[in-house]
Amino acid sequence: MTSVPTLQDKDKRFLWHPYTQMQDYAQRDLLLIDRAEGICLFDHQGKRYFDTVSSWWCIVHGHSHPTITEKIRSQLTRLDQVLLAGTSHEPAILLAEQLVGLAPPNLSRVFYSDNGSTACEIAIKMSLQYWRQTGEPKRCQLVGIERGYHGDTIGTMSLGGVPEFHGPFAPLLFHSHRLPSPYCYRCPVGQEQKTCDCQCLQPLADLLVEQGSRIAALIIEPLIQAAGGMIIYPAKYLQKAAALTREYGVHLIFDEVATGFGRTGTMFALEQAGVAPDFLCLSKGLTAGMLPMAATLTSEDIFQAFYGEYAAGKTFFHGHTFSGNPLAAAAGLGSLQVFAQEQTMAGLPDKISHLQARMLRFADLPWVGDLRQIGMISAMELVKDKQAKAPYDFHERVGWPIYLAGLKQGLLLRPIGNVMYLWLPLSVTIAEIDEITERAWQVLSDPQNIAGF
């Protein structure tokens, strides 16, 4: 086995890590993970770290769940990879059937890809081509939401609004309409909870009055803008947005890449609003974090607009080498089997209640401006002045000392800007919630770990 110092040296010489300022590690070693078990990661010295961010929000049933690993192992002995253009295979077919069974009744078709960005980009392209092929080519405009995040491709960045991430690529992005974020803590229209009737959707209503016949689709992350700062908003926002899009015939795209598969307390976040979109984008938890995979679900009406003689040119010319990969599809089937066998969703209410109760004391800390919680997600927005809601500046980098302190406490934390959060695997136990929140308290309650205090 290669020694740890050698690996660290080779890492710094050859690797370029995502969303990472590599200079931070010029004189510091990265956390080198050797193995994982349950909801914990272990380094080469055997030190344990709770995976409090579900390894970028994808681990659902814990690491290396035996049911899922056996599904993959069994599939590997039969078929590892085959193109999905003009061929098919059992795992992709059966997984599509089960996904359709879980989704709203209007969603009956599954198009596979390999990550969340592509799932969303596929929905965008399908919508645009649909309108062109159904006699409304003027419907070519798209609507997104400020601080929405749908991926890092040019298309999805063009519909997102996280300037810290996407600013350098502005010259490449196409124009899209942007709505105010439903950022309740910093309401864009100055409302409070008792007066809120989702007035922040008025710009959408105005836009649709003016240009509704030219709008192809609106894309939304249901209930929580995750990468945009863990911004949690009420279900009635989705209901009102859906009603507006229906009135003007605009497609509704739900990006549940992060929220799907139980994260918010229901299998899909859309269930809490009782709203069915025209497109549902899934990834991350689709395979419980085992292998890369994504799916874009849509309706029979949209599918039929692409159905016809080849010469008619209606084919959806889009695909990925690993679309519907047999191993990934087997992992997806294994994950859904675990959901059924372990009754994962039935066990969530008690865990959610316990997590939310354990987090309440964090709201009293002078640097926690807002505590936001939904399902197995708990987020705290850190501020310099609680009464004034004064945010930290970018250069103050409030999350860095929290990340380092978390490692000392055996927690893998990864704050987003000024927002510290827990995004726990659904398999977490009550005892593990107690231990994680207590360790997080040791980090967050210590003024030495908080910039400016």
Identify the notable features of this structure and list them briefly.
alpha/beta, Aspartate Aminotransferase, domain 1, Aspartate Aminotransferase, domain 2, seven-stranded mixed sheet, 14 helices, globular
What report would you give on this structure?
The protein is α/β, with parallel strands linked by helices and 453 residues long. It has helices spanning 4-14, 54-57, 66-76, 90-102, 116-133, 154-157, 163-166, 202-211, 235-247, 300-304, 326-341, 344-359, 399-408, 430-444; strands spanning 33-37, 40-43, 48-51, 107-113, 141-145, 177-179, 215-220, 224-225, 231-232, 251-255, 279-282, 294-299, 368-374, 377-385, 390-391, 411-412, 419-423. It folds into 2 domains: 31-61 and 343-449, Aspartate Aminotransferase, domain 1 (Alpha-Beta Complex); 68-341, 3-Layer(aba) Sandwich (Aspartate Aminotransferase, domain 2), CATH 3.40.640. The protein has 14 helices and 17 strands. The strands form 4 sheets. The chain has a 7-stranded mixed β-sheet with strand order 4-12-11-10-7-5-6, with helices on both faces. A hairpin with a 4-residue loop joins strand 14 (377-385) and strand 15. It is globular. The two termini are 44 Å apart. 45% of the residues are buried.
